[in-house]
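P.,

For your records, the input lines for the assembly:
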Amino acid sequence: MNQISRICPVTDTDAERLVRPGTFADLGARITTAPPADLGARITAAPPADLGARITAAPPADLAPARPGRRPRGHRKPIRTPIGMSLAAVAAVIALVAAALAITRPSAPPKPATAPPPSVESSARPLAAQVLSFTTSGGYITVIVRNPLADPARYRAEFAAHHLNITLKMVPASPSIVGTVVYIEEPASGPDIETITAQGRCYTGGGGSACPVGVRIPVGFRGQAEVVFGRAARPGEQYESTASATAPGEVLHGLRFAGDTVAQVLALLRERHVTVPVFNYAQSGGARNVSHVPGTWYVYDADPWAPGQVLLFVGPTRTPPANQAPQPGTPVASPTS
Amino acid sequence: MPRPPIADPGERQRRFEVVYAAHRGPILGYVLRRTGNPDDAADVIAETFLTAWRRLDEIPRDPQTRLWLYGVARRVLANHHRGERRRSALADRLRADLAVGYHPPEFDGEQAQITEAFRGLPAADRELLALSAWEGLDYGQIAVVLGCSRNAVRLRLFRARKRFAAELADAGARSAQSGVHVPHGGFV
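Structure tokens returned:
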């Protein structure tokens, strides 16, 4: 396919040359600070939250940007809940919209621009044991997650009863992306699962504000798919999916700290009741996660770690080493794994 | 084949570093060839290798490792284009490097026509053709990346090439009427 080779935008070699040597080392170091557990592997049983269909009628949560210097709210996200739901309930508002299996798809459905319209709970049988409810309305089946902390096998079983081979997982996520789609895995061919987005509900990569809050499963979808949602983390539970630590709704929203010393940033975080269980710094032999670093070191960046906790990327120089491989850091007293 | 879980954290880290060092360049190339946006590319790279870290036990041995990573990157890109984007702090420095250094090529003349024809194809066709032409994969390797049979790849690639030829003929006819200048802005 010579012609297509001629429009190859960039070769592997040229791509690698775009990246400074220290950058790849830094990224690798940051990645290995993430919990290695497989997505969803750490979900455990918890009291179920019964989420009725009416919850899907709530408008997309409004993430009002907090003002810099405002009194912190801990790890809670500043969401208005017009029908007085608890934050935990909001966190679990997850609507999967599936095209009605019995109806032939007349044409491609319009690209959804907002959260699904209110649906009337009709056919869902109120079985106490149900973890999902399926409601047929207007040619679609709305699937509501009644228990966001159920055993994933139970979701699978209930999808299977509706002839859908879909695995649903919930992973602990940082506050601003709780209740959003974190990941979809689906077959390479056949109709795509599409996302339902809510503008401004969360902030995503590249400055985007089209927040994915649900999925729409087209008629004829017979493949195997996995849909992963972010759920609220329990106290002390490490996030598996994070937004920027300074995004609206995250604990460091509105703060600027890059280039400040560790001592300065820790003082700032104390005001917000945010703690730092782990510092990460890169050195020539790879990254190190440690529990203490000198207060005179500098902070480069932060990432949400667990409710009320962030990880700080730090080093002994004011700016991260950029033009060469990371410099060896000063030895520290108490490394952790 | 997946191997037994790696229990030792040090061994786990070493195994990841071997995979990362060997494949980060080609995976970066794969992603940059499919998105002209450096921000998106940086996030997709970070997410791809984060997935590799979390699913280290599932990564097959060479020469299948890169194909597995292409498959992950392809799915992450698909998620990204649907809006499930995460601006990850992980990728900040990579984002900065790519923003400074990466300028997608702008084609004119015959290359612009080829680009226009290529863009006119369905996404699945583009991916097949690109895996063949840009990554240099054969039918069997593409089958691994896409998770389908070798025969299916052969058939789909045949059809994709036919559609591409038809698109190219159309693009040629259009460019005869007016000059064509197509900046590359990502093909997915």
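Two observations worth noting. The mean pLDDT of chain B is 83. The longest strand of chain B covers residues 106-108.

Regards
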